[in-house]
Amino acid sequence: MSTFRWLPALVFVTASLAHADGVSDLKRFLSSTTGVQGQFSQTVSGKPGTPVQISSGTFAIQRPGKFRWSYLKPYEQLIVGDGKRVWLYDPDLRQATSKQLSAALESSPAALLAGDNALDKTYTLRNLANRDGLSWVEAVPKSKESTFDSIRLGLKSAQVVAMELQDHFGQTTRVSFSGLTQNPKQSASLFQFTPPKDVDVVEE
Fold first, then answer.
1. Peptide bond into 141 cis (omega under 30)
2. CA–CA dist 81, 103 (Å, integer)
3. Cα–Cα–Cα angle for 121, 177, 56, nearest 5°?
4. Which of 68, 164, 187, 189 has the greatest number of beta carbons closer than 10 A?
5. pLDDT per residue over 19-51, tens digit each?
6. CA distance 144 to 184
7. What pTM, to 2 d.p., does this model score?
8. Which positions ≥6 away from 54 have C-beta within 8 Å?
9. Is residue 14 in a domain?
10. For residue 125, what are the domain limits?
């Protein structure tokens, strides 16, 4: 697997029940958050009739630029950002793919999660109407190189509890988060990766 499958992973924010200004809450929370960790469940759906892909796992973020996404089910896969490079490791394929962190952040939702607080430079943000008991924020990437058309964050009770991503291929990725911990103590080894022996390494 030579391309990065970006995971949404998590963002906390503050939201009121009615007339919420999710954009301001998102910026305010990110400015006071250095790290976060928890679990995620994810579904990917395409055109009608195509199979729905379901997966789950754990994640950790240390801002800026460090993150770890671990798919546990149905197959293991690991994505690690060490502050300089991003690694994607697929144990089944025995392959590790690496690319520069700056390029990875500019073209993926990871910029919202692990990047700096200058969201307006990368995304056009706007509040959406409340739906399903959540307040929603839409982030549209400004870069034409982004792999996503739009990213939507569902906010409730001081947490992001849902994320929806629409890509250029007509696929919709929906993620829900649980067990979130803000600013936890995290080991530096979480955000380090060394390719195992006998693994093909691809650099992009």
1. no
2. 12
3. 110
4. 68
5. 457 787 777 777 778 888 999 999 999 888 788
6. 35
7. 0.80
8. 41, 42, 43, 74
9. no
10. 22-182
